[in-house]
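Input chain follows. Return structure tokens only.
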Amino acid sequence: MTARSPNYMIGIFCGLAVPFIWGAWIVTSRFGVTQSMTAYDVTALRVGIGSLIVLPIMFKYGFSGLSLYRGFIISIGAGAPFALASFTGMAIAPVAHAGIFTNGSLPIFTAIFGLFLLKEKLSHKRIFAIAALVIGCILIASESIAQANIASIWFGDLLLLLAGAIFALYLTTLRKWQPEIKQTIVVVPVISAAIYLPIWVVFLPSDLLFENNFPPWPEIALQAIFQGAIASVLVVILLTKATKSVGPTTIAVFLSASPALAVIFAMFILNEIPTKLEWIGLIITTLGMLLAIDRKPISY
């Protein structure tokens, strides 16, 4: 595929849109869980609205041949468990931590899962990249230690690392099983909604289910649109189209900009200004993400 072909240019456009959406998703999610809603509520909106959007596809195609076991594992990686870990962590830790710990840990955890599930060996370059990522995360962790509320920030950082591990499982299973896009779009929100929503309604604290603390409708609409439609459906379509058109290496380079974009958005929208140590950690982890990119050519 040449750089002048329409499909290639469409792929570039789709690929460039994803890191901006991902960065905005981090800021939007932190805004949601620090204002009028709990992390449980935002998760419910994500899987509930997402499942409603894909129901027509579900009724027409079902899981399109994807087994329930594989669908369940995939839904863990990008559904309710990932959302709960992310949103709960974002409610405690600032945006800079969310971008670095979740995105920066992805190459580390994907390397670990790839070693055991895909039998992939670690190259010297990948090991060096992982070392850079670990250093960047340690710098940010040391910043947490210096804060007054050490325990809560550390817990938030650990949850963000857990989110990175869960999403790495999702990416690894996609590489291993290579499901079709309509399978992935359907199973993630539908299975998550079927399992999570009853638990949320019966057992979990919520502001959406009680009139006394009911959140403002604009905030509900923002989270419903961004979490249910954009993050759950649109991003999957954009990533799939971009990867097929320009290759995973180019897309990985684009995605490495997500943490920095999230920090920039947070500076203007949430007034969260990173410290010098957080900026250094952000730069090191971004370089580590770039080093971790697999530059093997893709065949079409």
